[in-house]
Amino acid sequence: MEVTRTVTRTSTRFVTPSERNEILRLHERRTALNELLLVLVSPYLSTNERDTLEVEIHEDLIRTNALFEAWWQDVGERYHLESAEHGRWSIDFESRELSFERALEECCRSRSPECQTPSHA
User: Fold this and answer.
1) Whether 57 contacts 91, CB under 8 Å
2) How many whole angstroms from its chain centre is CA 21?
3) How buried is 100 (Cβ within 10 angstroms: 0-12 exposed, 13-18 middle, 19+ buried)?
4) pLDDT value of position 112
5) Which residues are 99's β-sheet partners?
6) Which parts of the chain fold into alpha helices (H)?
7) Distance of alpha carbon 29 from alpha carbon 116, whole angstroms
8) Burial of 55 by CB count in 10 Å (0-12 exposed, 13-18 middle, 19+ buried)?
9) What is the model's pLDDT at position 120?
10) Cβ of 98: how many Cβ atoms within 10 Å?
11) Residue 36 · residue 49 · CB < 8 Å
12) By the 8 A CB rule, do 60 and 35 touch?
């Protein structure tokens, strides 16, 4: 059974073009590294080549993920963003807008004004 998680979205901040470019570069690198992991099943690679590439990709992915998380930590502190404990922050790369997606269960529990469930509207 698939569980659908409803969220409420609050837009609060915009980052600078430079900040957007930095997180976009990290996002694209993470995506590319994850795609490279899929290539490792190629029959054209020897076991040694596959093992070497896998280690290098995983190490790069760990570094990139750390930089990605550090960017969010830095931006969170700079712009005084709400903790992502009960939701997650996302960025619209085109508009540079940061949005917080709060899980509906948390929204309803906190009786937040953004909550649009029939019992709270």
Assistant:
1) no
2) 15
3) buried
4) 52
5) 11, 90
6) 17-39, 47-78, 104-110
7) 36
8) exposed
9) 39
10) 23
11) no
12) no
Provide the CA 6 distance to its chain's centre, in angstroms.
17
For the chain, the domains span 7-110
Residue range 71-84, pLDDT digits in tens:
999 999 999 888 77
Q: How far apart are CA 28 and CA 51, in angstroms?
A: 24
pLDDT in tens, 44-79: 999 999 999 999 999 999 999 999 999 999 999 999
Q: Could you tell me the two tokens for 38?
A: 């899929």
115, containing H or E segment: none
Residues 81/98, Cβ–Cβ less than 8 Å: yes
Which pairs count as long-range contacts for 94-100, CB under 8 Å and 24+ apart, including other chains?
A: 95/14, 96/14, 96/15, 96/16, 96/17, 96/19, 96/20, 97/11, 97/13, 97/14, 98/11, 98/12, 98/13, 98/14, 98/15, 99/9, 99/10, 99/11, 99/12, 100/9, 100/10, 100/11, 100/12
